[in-house]
Structure formats: structure tokens, C-alpha cells
Design a protein that fits this description.
- The structure is a single chain.
- The protein has four helices and no strands.
- The chain is mainly alpha-helical and 140 residues long.
- The protein starts with 21 loop residues before the first helix and ends with a helix.
């Protein structure tokens, strides 16, 4: 599937530009939309494949193997469904003007982090603090 973009495909957000200017917002909007479309297209193919792939397999080991493969595929789809939900939330943040800012501190999230993980809601430092707290509470 060819990615559609509304801007120069060579553009990369840079630290020397105003943070979350129109061009950066368009870049991240397109990145998120393309990612979502790719996941949805992949999911559609999986559903069609599972519907076509339903068959009676007489060998118990082969049937168990196929059921394990299906269960793994369904778990993968569930994770992707959750990612689509996070992509939708990021697109809403672009629209309301809060995209790119840390939910914990209100400070800008680095462009490098957003480019790598465009659904990020915390700066790297806030994410690390969150994970340390989570680890401490998990060890109780």
C-alpha cells in the first residue's frame, strides 16, 4: 500500500523550527494516519484469511498447531486494536492543540521521540519515572 502524504516526503521535523508548527503537525498527522491505515488493511486481510482458512483438519497435532497460530494472530490483532485507539487519541490531540506535549509535565516531547513513537504522551524523562514507579509497585 502506497503511503499518501500531503507534504514534501523529504521533510523531517527539526529542533530549529517552532515546536508543533503547521508543517510538523501535518507531518505527524500523516504519519499517524498512514500507520492506522496500514494496521486496518492488515487486519482486514487477517479476518478474510481466517474466514477462508476455517477447515476440518483430521490430524490432532496439525489442528492444535493451527489453533495456536490463530490464537497468536488474534492476540496480535488485539494489540493492534489498542494501538489504533492510541493513534486516534493522538490525532484528537493534534486537533485540540495538545499533541507533542507531555501529559505529566506539560513540556514538549522531543521530536526524536515523537518521530520514533508518534503516539507518545510522556516525555522520555516522565516515561522513565513512570516505569520506575510501576516497577517499585509491581515488586510489592
Amino acid at each position: 500500500m502506497k503511503a499518501e502524504t500531503n507534504f514534501d516526503t523529504d521533510y523531517r521535523p527539526a529542533e530549529d523550527e517552532p515546536f508543533m508548527n503547521d508543517r510538523q503537525l501535518e507531518y505527524f498527522r500523516d504519519k499517524l494516519t498512514n500507520w492506522k491505515n496500514a494496521i486496518l488493511a492488515d487486519s482486514k486481510g487477517t479476518i478474510e484469511g481466517m474466514q477462508e482458512g476455517t477447515r476440518n483438519i483430521p490430524d490432532v497435532a496439525d489442528r492444535a498447531s493451527e489453533e495456536t497460530d490463530r490464537a497468536l494472530e488474534l492476540r496480535t490483532r488485539d494489540r493492534q486494536r489498542k494501538v489504533v485507539s492510541k493513534i486516534d487519541a493522538a490525532l484528537r490531540r493534534i486537533e485540540d492543540g495538545s499533541y507533542g506535549y507531555c501529559e505529566a509535565t506539560g513540556e514538549p516531547i522531543s521530536l526524536k521521540r515523537l518521530d520514533a513513537r508518534p503516539i507518545a504522551t510522556l516525555s522520555l524523562e516522565a516515561q522513565e519515572r513512570h516505569e520506575r514507579r510501576e516497577k517499585v509497585h509491581r515488586d510489592d
